[in-house]
Amino acid sequence: MTPGNTPEKFLHGLKESRLVAIVRGTDGPAAALAALAVMAEGFRYVEVALTTPDALAAIRRIRDAAPEGCLVGAGTVLTARDVHDVVAAGGQFIVTPALAESIDVGAGLGLPVLAGALTPTEAYQAMTRGATAVKLFPASVGGPSYLKALRDPFPQIPFIAVGGVGLAEAPAFWAAGAIAVGPGGPLIGDAASGGDLGALRERARAFVALADERAGTHRVEATRLEAKLS
User: Fold this and answer.
1) What is residue 71's three-state secondary structure?
2) CA torsion through residues 109, 114, 117, 121, sign
3) What confidence score (pLDDT) does residue 88 get?
4) Residue 6 phi, psi dihedral angles, 5° rounding
5) pLDDT at position 222
6) What pLDDT, on the 0 to 100 scale, is given for residue 225?
């Protein structure tokens, strides 16, 4: 684990940034370039899916070149071996698509873990096994209304909406209580397979601007509430 990168600190930063970029493609070097491009445009958290060829080498490259304050992790982390390989490559957090053994192993090592879950039972189990936050996946199945329903009995669980979340969908998920959203295809496009990095940068800027706008609105709402209660 990176010194100072505790799950608590990671969660605090994620709540501030509201975004996790999900990089999945067919070319490891292109995936690294895509990750660094979105970091340059303001994304602080980027995961590289282990299904991407040469994903571990891409993580090493990103870690070496990432701007200060940006963290790179691995997605589709399933096994104990996966966790240890990611740590050896310099990965700073892990993301799972389901309730895999990697949750327990990563949490045991002190890594921030974003655990994939869909149902109430899965979300609860993910947190009891040491997850830092729950990745609601695929979020498009139930949409923001489903997330809101999940949060009613579990207001203490930090949820990240992933799967089919683009610019048009992100505000509704934030409004429903997601601490962050994880755009994949709607952000990365074909850039992680050798596609246009210029277009990727434009999309990244749009997501960051939207998240900043939402954060500003949230601060105004909080200030109004404090004034009303004082």
Assistant:
1) strand
2) positive
3) 98
4) -80, 160
5) 45
6) 42
pLDDT digits (tens, 9 = 90+) for 50-98: 999 999 999 999 999 999 999 999 999 999 999 999 999 999 999 999 9
Of the residues 16, 47, 68, 226, only one is catalytic, namely 47
Residue 182 is inside which H or E element, if any? strand 180-182
Q: How many CB atoms lie within 10 A of CB 176?
A: 20
Give, as one character, the DSSP assignment of residue 19. B
In angstroms, the CA 9 to CA 14 distance is 9
The SS3 of residue 1 is coil
Do you find a cis peptide bond into 67, omega within 30 degrees of 0? no
Active site residue 148: no
How deeply is 122 buried, as exposed, middle or buried, from its count of CB atoms within 10 A (0-12, 13-18, 19+)? middle
Helix (H) or strand (E) holding 103: helix 102-108
Query: Among 41, 135, 202, 213, which one carries the catalytic annotation?
Result: 135
Q: Which residues of the chain have pLDDT under 70?
A: 1-3, 216-230
135 is annotated as an active-site residue: yes
Which pTM does this prediction carry? 0.91
The 159-162 sheet, strands edge to edge: 21-23, 45-49, 71-75, 94-95, 113-117, 133-136, 159-162, 180-182
